[in-house]
Amino acid sequence: MEKIKMFWLAVCLMLACAEASKILVVFPLPSRSHGNLGDGLVKHLLNAGHEVTYITPFPYKNAPPTLRTIDVSKNFDIMPMDIMSIKSIMDSPMFLHSIGFMLYMMIDLNRHTIQLEEVNKVLTDPKEEFDLVIAEWMFTDIPAGFASVFDCPLIWLSSVEVHWMILQLVDQPTNPAYTVDIMSTYTPPLNFWQSANELWTQVKINFLQYVWLDGVQERAFNELIHPLVLKRGRKPPTFDESRYNASLLLSNAYISTAASVALPQNHKFIGGYHIDDEVKPMSAELKKIMDNAKHGVVYFSMGSNFKSKDMPEELKKSLLQMFGTLKQTVLWKFEEKMDNLPSNVHILDWAPQQAILSHPNLAVFITHGGLLSTTESVHFGVPIIGIPVFADQFLNVVKAVNKGFAQRVDLSYTMADKLREAIIEVTSNKRYAEKAKELSFIHHDRPVKPGVELVHWVNHVINTRGAPHLRSPALHVPFYQKMYLDLAVFLVILLLVGRLLVKKAYRAVLSKSKAKKKTH
Ligand SMILES: *[C@@H]1O[C@H](CO)[C@@H](O)[C@H](O)[C@H]1NC(C)=O
């Protein structure tokens, strides 16, 4: 009894000491991995004593008292998630992967989120106030409007590797001669054609934004956000005033795998923050399987979005048959029962991924290469085989291959043989595991853990009312000024005018002297 009292006393003291702020967290994307990143963020904020309002499509069952969730699971209805299944990606037309399609989809999702009754209630209620908004940036700047409504600082959280599109919101785009786009399949150093291609990507996307998508975003912003700001008695900001107003950019990446490029002072790496300090143990049954795997374990999971059950039938069969020929124990995250399993293959309809990755008998992780999975494999020091399917997975896998802890296999109907070769290579050649351990050391060798860093900077922004001292002076300098194109034009004009004047003066002098000669 005494002990319990003491515990609550300590909790109350802790809460009183840490100043509680009201934070609005905006993570509306109906995708489990993005939800995991939002949940991880919320967990750290709650532990730091803050009061959190969390816009999420994955509502909690037992939310703690300092957490209020705003359920936006209706977003599942408007995201064409079925185009994201493995089979349809293998068979679908290319336009579904095009950047224009994806950007438009993200804008629409955010517009829809703001219009949802559950969210609108909070936005229109004059009693609602926040000290900070933290929003995931996923190819649209519309969420900046939340901070404008509540007249408070904004922090962007980038769920992917830091890249030029998001950096231009707080500083400037990176140079395409030595940095790549988030959907790229190149890693620097770039050759002539690759760097030309990267430049083309930036030009193309900027052009798309300029002629089309910025207009779509701005209209949505004016239509949805302006009335809300007016209602609170303030003058509505322009879309640009709102979207370039972020105090900080937190990126779910770390230098263990990210490119080592110059970054602005208000960019902070927090990659790995979603991983718990203590790994939740796996079931006794699974532990027994892994403990007894004399030749090591191959773990195969395509994540939560791409379900193995949606694979084409012939691919499933050929993979299963191939796994049966391995000496290793195979754990396959697969959402259905399967018949005629080889004795070394075990099906898991749900996989405690972090526990599996931390098991000493794990030999290789076969993954789609999403950033959460690649971060987790670096965290636990496990080599991977990447089968990239979508978005940044190609880049993550290419980087992992370049770093030396991965093999890449392309998704296809006939990939079983290639995958078998890759498994044999990664499990028999020690260098993959050694490299993974090396990167894992780099990943953990930081002054503080990523979760501590995250909380520190969030508090810093709140306590300095938006951390204006961290903002980059480059943000509001237009491109032509950075390149001194205005000076160049000025100098050219000066030169031309100068030349003209000299010419005129010379002619004047000449004609004068001619006139003098005539009078003589
Ligand atoms: C810009 O950020 C500051 C805090 O950093 C905030 O007070 C202000 O309301 C923001 N303005 C807009 C238009 O979002």
From TrEMBL:
Catalytic activity: glucuronate acceptor + UDP-alpha-D-glucuronate = acceptor beta-D-glucuronoside + UDP + H(+)
Entry EC no(s): 2.4.1.17
Keywords: Glycosyltransferase, Membrane, Signal, Transferase, Transmembrane, Transmembrane helix
A single MF term (Gene Ontology): glucuronosyltransferase activity
InterPro entries: UDP-glycosyltransferase, UDP_glucos_trans, UDP_glycos_trans_CS
Superkingdom to which the source organism belongs: Eukaryota
Cellular component terms per the entry's GO annotation: membrane
Compartment(s) where it occurs, according to its Swiss-Prot or TrEMBL record: Membrane
Record flagged with keyword Transferase: yes
Enzyme class name: transferase
Signal peptide: 1-20
Record-annotated membrane-spanning stretches: 483-502
Primary localization: membrane
Record's bilayer topology term: Single-pass membrane protein
Family, as annotated: Belongs to the UDP-glycosyltransferase family.
Protein name stated in the entry: UDP-glucuronosyltransferase
Organism: Spodoptera litura (Asian cotton leafworm)
Lineage, opening ranks: Eukaryota, Metazoa, Ecdysozoa, Arthropoda, Hexapoda
